[in-house]
Amino acid sequence: MARLKPTDTPTGRQTALWTLLWLALAALVLWIVFPSTYRWHWDAFWQYKNLFFRGFLTMLGISLVAMVLSVLVGFSLMLGGRAPWIPLRVAATGYVTLMRGTPLLVVLLLGYYGVVSPLNLCSALVAGTALLALFEAAYLAEIFRGALESISASQREAARAVGFNLIQTYRFVLIPQAVRRTLPGVAGELVSLVKSSSLLSVLGIEEVTQVTRLLNSRNYTALEGFIPLALAYLAVTLPLTWWANRLERRFAYET
Amino acid sequence: MRLEAREVVKVLGKTRALDGASFSTGDQQKVVTLLGPSGGGKSTLLRVLGCLLVADEGDVMVDGAHLPHEEKEALQVRRGNGFVFQGYNLFPHLSALENVALPLREVHGWTQEKARMRALEMLERLGLADHHTKRPAQLSGGQQQRAAIARALAPKPSLLLLDEPTSALDPVMTGEVLDVVSELADVGQQIVLATHEVSFARKVSDWVIFLAQGKVIESRPATDFFANPESQPARDYLAGLGRYR
User: N or C: which terminus of chain B carries fewer CB neighbours within 10 A?
Assistant: First the structure.
């Protein structure tokens, strides 16, 4: 078999072949491990496919709203962290540090049962989506900051030299170059956001993980729910990853 | 042009890049060259003269007009000047054409079409007609600097400020860029040039300002300076550069 150098990429056919072979092997292992002890009840789960699908759509909706929100908040936090006023800068960087140091589960429990619920602010669905977005925004802010700071000082000087003011410098020089550098990180973070939305089940929100757990306990099933659940998340995260890779290639230019 | 500075101080980080620099040139100087050892304050003085930096203390005048100390007014003055640096100052995400046209539209308020025509004209004048769709990474170092000169010249700046425009280039590319600068001088473009290319400076300069350690050591007509440098640092500098050329 031909040995690859680290930078080589296998052809599509080779990749497809080996993916199928490895999947077949995994299926075989599962089949050997679960032969007699596990009794499949796909029919029990199949009855509730509509409920599952509705949970899937809820997950999708939560993720999409949280993505948009987290990018906006993350960008504002990054700008806040670079603000010329000390209080704003301390607030933005403090927020990012605290959020990044706290587990999402704790943020959700504390935010919902500690703040939103006692004050009767909004539904669990809205609160959960917002908390998820606020949590991911802290990570995105750091990704944005890293990308912006990686642009060399000579670019800022060149922007000033052609007469751009601060806003024009960001708009025409810094952000277009930073966007490409953020893409891999942002895509990874958005994939992570989709997966993290499963934690919203602890607030009783009927997204796909919560629905699956309910259906499993109702039907005394387990894998019949969890396997479709895994596939449901992959159905969202894999296209997201591919899309990010394509964007990254499209923005590719040498510096 | 006539350039003047009185006791100019500019602190960058912890160093006093300009430490009480004073000089004045004669009237009607077309090409003023800043010479001196690295770290002596050439680049900083060039930036202050072009209003890219504002002096912390002291006073700078261009043709008798005081340069502002406020960033907002400095931006307005700066927009009337053109800058070319050592290298890597084109915007890598834009084509050569956009590098020239974008500031014309956004800074100088030109229409899309007028900016495009002007950018094409400038790139053609600098021998880059066939390269206007390329991004900087697809151009050679000399072509990049010529594109940078095209960008600086496009809005018809009153002053063209060049900060060691050939320091990052090999001898062939250096030649390409210096040819352009000398043509510009011939057609009467007002130029402030910081360089280590002494033989080139001797050819094009009208006036020389020699700096070391943030101070102006000599400020004299170029012919006088090169024929008979008065100060020891200037004599050492010229002798040192001449040793291998």
Answer: C
